[in-house]
Each structure stands twice: as C-alpha cells, then as structure tokens.
C-alpha cells in the first residue's frame, strides 16, 4: 500500500498538520487521546475535507487542494469501522452488512454469504444490533466495511467498546481476518499491544503531527522520541547532560550513571533519558555490589498487581510520602519489600533510551 499524505486542517483549538509517507500493508496509528488519529482517518475517507494539501493512496488522488480534486467518500473505495461501530439499530445484521451495496447482484449475494460465514455471523443474520454481543457487533461492522470490496480498510479503535477479555480475543480474530482478506489497512488505536500484535509499521501521532514512523520492533526496542517512548509504555524519564568526566548526569533523578555506547554526541537533539520499568532491577542492600550503575534509593510506595508489583523509588534521601519518587520498576509479585526500605536500583546502561522531545 502506498500512502502519500500531506494535509493541513485548522479547527478551533486543534491544528492537524500531517505528513505521512509509507508502503506498509498494515500501518498502525498510535497516539494519545485527542492527538488527531480519527481526524486523519476521516480526511482519508472523505468525511472531513482538509483545508489544504493532498492525499494519494495507491497512486490514486483522493484529495488535492492544488488540483481541486476531492473524491466523494463512495468513490474512494475505503471501508471504515468506527469506534462505536455505528451500526444502524433499525436494520438487521444482514441489512447492516448489505447497506453499502447499491444494487443487488448475484456476485454481491455470494459475497455477502461468504462474508457472513467467514466472520462467523451465521445464524445472526436476522437479529438486530441490540440483540447481539459487543464482539458480534464488531464483526458486523467489519463485514459491512468489507462488503463493498474496499481497496483499503480504516479501523478506528475497533475494540474500544469491549471489555478486556473480549478485546484480547478480538485482537486475535482481527489478525486472522486481516490476513484472510488481505486488505491494506490503517489501524488507529491508543493501545500499544493492539498496534504491536496487528501492525507491521507504526506511526506515532502527537498533537496533529506525525512524531515518528518505524517498524514496530524498532519502535518498541529503540524509540527515538519522548512521545514514542511514552506511548509504548516507558514510564521513567529524566533530562540529562553528559559531563566532561564521561558520566551521564540525570538531572530530574539527581543521580549520575556511567557512560554507555549509545549515548549521543553533544550536538544531538536528544535531551531526555528514559528507561522502562522492567529493565530496572531491584537489588537488596545486602547483595548490592555498589557498582556505579547501582544507585541507592528508598521505596516510597508499592503497588501490588496480580502478577507483579511496582516499586516507586526515591534517590538521594528517604521519601516524604508515596508521591515522592524518581523512578518506578516492576518486581515479581513474591518479592518482599517494604515502604521506606533502602534498596539499590540497577540501571542496565545498554537499556537507556536517549530521546528527542
Ligand atoms: N468537528 C470538530 N470540530 C472541532 N474540533 C474537533 C472536531 N472533531 C475533532 N475535533 C478536535 O480535534 C482533535 C483531534 O480529534 P480526534 O478525534 O482526531 O482525536 P483522536 O486522536 O482520535 O482521539 P481519541 O483517541 O480520544 O478518539 C481533538 O482536540 C478534538 O477535540
């Protein structure tokens, strides 16, 4: 799929100014709430008209302010699954799926039967949306989007209305459908696990602009920007300087770390250091080697979850309360730890992320 998008749209209090160029078959769009993900899909589908710019998908121009082209939504051949599915409540499952088909032709009838079967909707054809489950409604919405044989699927947080268990089930199903139907897909979500599981490349969108675009493994292992690190789950950040003594001064944490290979040159735009919770290690004071990457700290809070606990740790002096901490790290659920206990936090320096703001 070739996507060439350069668009601008000004709304009250929000400015979409977005440049996106990719050949990915399934592109994830990951971003915080209000970052402009849905607006991007609406511009591609033709539901919102940009103020200026161009949208070219698979070499077809959908929109060009310069050439005065603005294809009607139905001429763009995109299938759209909305956040809340937007099924018609007064139409049955079958009528909802067939809604986008203009004329009843034999091949369309066959296509409809195939879709109903492939999306496991047999037996539900004559039910109304209110009579089927959330997961089934989601499949009907997907079937309706696929019924017109679109060149491209636009999926806008298709699982946001589902509970966590069903969401996980539906992610697996969706992966099967996407590989079965082989439609080029733009997949909007703010859930990093969905984007990672379903997409090849992922674009991170921040305040109406593309922050980064990369293969998913690169995004998760080596994010280059603060926003990409945050949206992929990194929780510990500090501004930093490289000292003449070849130490990394972590200004917000008030500590120094030994130099590492991936540390950037002085001229770099990177100004924030990050490290993921699960890369930090908790070392008991009795077993700490006091190596230069093991930093003394005190536990300010402990949050126990079913499979792990999160320790909140303050450096340099004991914390004044649970909110007073510098980093958080995950430890096995069984780990014995106490608030105010002194521990050492080990920073594997090869895991440090150097990020642009
Ligand atoms: N019709 C509109 N008029 C004015 N502002 C709008 C309109 N639609 C959306 N916005 C604003 O545009 C911004 C981007 O909205 P958008 O729906 O694209 O966000 P999003 O990233 O999809 O968020 P979410 O994950 O919460 O759905 C928001 O600040 C929103 O308030």
From TrEMBL:
Recorded superkingdom: Bacteria
Keywords in alphabetical order: ATP-binding, Nucleotide-binding, Transport
Entries under SUPFAM superfamilies matching the protein: P-loop containing nucleoside triphosphate hydrolases (SSF52540)
InterPro entries (alphabetical): AAA+_ATPase, ABC_SmlMolc_Importer, ABC_transporter-like_ATP-bd, ABC_transporter-like_CS, P-loop_NTPase
One function term, GO molecular function aspect: ATP binding
PROSITE patterns xrefs: ABC_TRANSPORTER_1 (PS00211), ABC_TRANSPORTER_2 (PS50893)
Protein name: ATP-binding cassette domain-containing protein
Species, as recorded: Fusibacter ferrireducens
Lineage of source species: Bacteria, Bacillati, Bacillota, Clostridia, Eubacteriales
């Amino acid at each position: 799929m070739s996507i060439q998008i350069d668009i601008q749209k000004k709304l009250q209090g929000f400015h979409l100014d977005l440049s996106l160029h990719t050949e990915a078959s399934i592109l994830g769009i990951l971003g915080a709430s209000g970052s402009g993900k849905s607006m991007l899909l609406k511009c591609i589908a033709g539901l919102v008209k940009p103020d200026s710019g161009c949208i070219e998908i698979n070499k077809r121009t959908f929109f060009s302010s310069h050439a005065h082209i603005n294809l009607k939504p139905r001429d763009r051949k995109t299938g759209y699954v909305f956040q809340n599915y937007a099924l018609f409540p007064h139409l049955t499952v079958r009528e909802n799926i067939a809604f986008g088909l203009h004329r009843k032709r034999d091949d369309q009838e066959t296509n409809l039967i195939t879709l109903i079967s492939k999306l496991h909707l047999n037996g539900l054809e004559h039910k109304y949306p209110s009579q089927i489950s959330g997961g089934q409604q989601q499949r009907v919405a997907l079937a309706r989007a696929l019924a017109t044989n679109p060149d491209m699927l636009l999926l806008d947080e298709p699982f946001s209305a589902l509970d966590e268990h069903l969401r996980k089930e539906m992610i697996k199903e969706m992966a099967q459908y996407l590989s079965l139907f082989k439609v080029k897909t733009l997949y909007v979500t703010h859930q990093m696990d969905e984007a990672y599981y379903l997409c090849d490349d992922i674009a991170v969108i921040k305040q109406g602009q593309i922050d980064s675009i990369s293969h998913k493994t690169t995004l998760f292992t080596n994010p280059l920007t603060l926003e990409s690190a945050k949206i992929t789950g990194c929780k510990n950040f500090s501004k930093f300087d490289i000292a003449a003594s070849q130490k990394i001064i972590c200004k917000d944490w008030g500590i120094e770390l030994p130099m590492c290979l991936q540390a950037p040159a002085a001229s770099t735009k990177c100004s924030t250091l990050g490290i993921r919770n699960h890369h930090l290690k908790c070392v008991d004071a009795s077993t700490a080697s006091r190596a230069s990457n093991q930093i003394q700290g005190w536990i300010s809070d402990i949050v126990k979850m079913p499979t792990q606990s999160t320790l909140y740790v303050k450096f340099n002096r004991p914390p004044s309360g649970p909110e007073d901490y510098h980093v958080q790290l995950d430890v096995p659920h069984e780990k014995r730890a106490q608030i105010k206990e002194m521990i050492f936090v080990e920073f594997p320096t090869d895991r440090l992320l150097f990020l642009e703001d």
